[in-house]
């Protein structure tokens, strides 16, 4: 690779990061201006929204709080436990439903009825079904992660070119060999996308899940801050959940791509 090519690539990368940082800075300045001037647009008001300076101070205090580690440990355990079970169940069901029409006819009707139910609606039933609040919270994150993984897996199987399967069968491949060597690799990109989205939705459901809890968790911290009207801490909790959700989704996606060397994404202009 020539020095000119390396220089151009570095320039493009610097430009991309510059645009991203500028976008973030513009959002922070707009937030600071709207909160500082107590902007009131009728349907939308910033009169009680804390400015970024107050949020930064609250974040600094949380960072030095002895409770932070307990909050993070509790939330990470709940999210990753629910996500792991959702990944296993979603991938197995998705491969089964996508590959065999009869199983699709049997399983999809009840799953499609359950899919639109929001996580908050599961709270009373989760409390009744599980003997501990910890299991209830893991179940809520499980329901949030399950359906993105399931539907993306089904889509990944269904979009495989039938000619690939026919070619493998004509070459003497059995049902298991076709499933392992054609269906799984073909559906893998969609599965990874579903896992990445599912991780994000698991974090999305965290506040809902930790409404059941009265102890620890970033979601509980956010909800408790709302109940005592500590507005800066609400925003801090939201930002922590957003950062953890984004980071874990990126890690899942990168790990998936590392396991798929045959899948090369097209570059973006």
From TrEMBL:
Keywords (alphabetical) are:
Cell membrane, Membrane, Transmembrane, Transmembrane helix, Transport
The ABC transmembrane type-1 domain extends over 72-252
- The UniProt entry lists the main location of this chain as membrane
**Topology of this chain in the membrane:** Multi-pass membrane protein
Q: Name one Pfam family in it.
A: BPD_transp_1
Mark the transmembrane ranges.
76-98, 119-151, 171-195, 202-222, 234-252
Its annotated compartments are: Cell membrane
Q: Give the UniProt record's GO annotations in the biological process aspect.
A: alkanesulfonate transmembrane transport
**Which InterPro entries does this chain map to?**
MetI-like, MetI-like_sf
Q: Which GO terms describe its cellular component?
A: plasma membrane
- Which residues fall in a coiled-coil region? none
Hey, which family's this protein in? Belongs to the binding-protein-dependent transport system permease family.
Name recorded for this polypeptide: ABC transporter permease subunit
What is the species of this protein? Answer: Duganella guangzhouensis
